[in-house]
Amino acid sequence: MSANIPVIESIMSANDQIAMGNRAKLDSAKVLGVNMMASPGAGKTSLIERTIKALQPELKLGVIDGDVASSIDADRAAAAGAAAVQINTGGACHLDAIMLQNGLAQMDLQVMDLLLVENVGNLICPSGFQLGTHYSVLIASIPEGDDKPYKYPGMYKGVDALIINKTDLLPYIDFDTDYFRQGVEILNPGLITFPVSCKTGEGLDAWFAWLQEKAAFAWG
Amino acid sequence: MSANIPVIESIMSANDQIAMGNRAKLDSAKVLGVNMMASPGAGKTSLIERTIKALQPELKLGVIDGDVASSIDADRAAAAGAAAVQINTGGACHLDAIMLQNGLAQMDLQVMDLLLVENVGNLICPSGFQLGTHYSVLIASIPEGDDKPYKYPGMYKGVDALIINKTDLLPYIDFDTDYFRQGVEILNPGLITFPVSCKTGEGLDAWFAWLQEKAAFAWG
Fold first, then answer.
1. Which residues in chain B are closer than 8 Å to A124, comparing Cβ atoms?
2. Residue B62 gets which letter from DSSP?
3. pLDDT (tens digit, 9 = 90+) per residue, B108-118?
4. What is the pTM of this model?
């Protein structure tokens, strides 16, 4: 290779560059960003409602909701008391960093401590796109079945915490917890896991404590 | 525009052209193809198992299973007695016509009456890709929640039949059937709907009868 030819190494995708900008914006406002991903109907919105009601007013929450269509989720987050923005992806199966950038531009981050980003309901596409949030959380649910880690490994590999929702339905569903946990452990060893029921409230305190701890220690 | 310049109108995508070839192949072998789509964990595989056991040996069934990873679903279909092929999409969030073409090449269509294509678990991406099958069926499930038609309109618009699975869980879940059906009716007026439980077997006979009727009348 000639020494005179400039070589540009493109080490980041455009999405990742914008994600880095989103992260810087969150950091400078001291807002902890959490990307919440799940299959359709796993209970992302119910969990977010519960979280808003439990953590406010000690922590001020914002929610950015991604959906193909409708504003059902942002309406519910706003009704629960959070600053909420709905992003309709117009068919796209995931949020990307530009969508989050546009969402952040609509929010007053100075009065916020914790931003929950509710991604599009999908176990495949969202895992491929960095948003710039600090943590990624996957919400699984009992009725989805115990084989999901084996069938959607990319999603289970990339997250920092796992919530297993709808534990109240365990008596009515064939769900082999050992088989499920084994699949998770292969993909993401030692992953912190919170079995919860957003219906009964069981197990949610541990999730709230995890969020509070992360928010408290984020900026030293 | 000059009369001398040839204008090529690309009226079909490459995917649609291959889908047309798949359809011709199914038609010439007199195999009815059904594209089965659903959210992860809605019960596609359980429904297919039930269908194989109910319709064989009067109808000979084949199953092509699409998943990001694993062969869990094809193993289950084969164990239930169908000719089965697993397609791993390697990350892609849907099947496309080329994948089905490759799957069909692995099957003996001459000894088959009905081919069930189990798409990747996803309420967004699969609706955008024609495969060449004769019918598209969506499997919804009670635990997913009653707001799904409003949030995933593209999927609900494009199907020929709707199965509502896991009706056995209705006593334990807040699911407003009227709200759900209203959303479906707006998007897909008059859509034929089968409320079923693959666990108890309730409602499945109507679904089996629909398939049998379609298979019987497909080639006159």
1. 68, 91, 93, 120, 122, 125
2. E
3. 999 999 999 99
4. 0.91
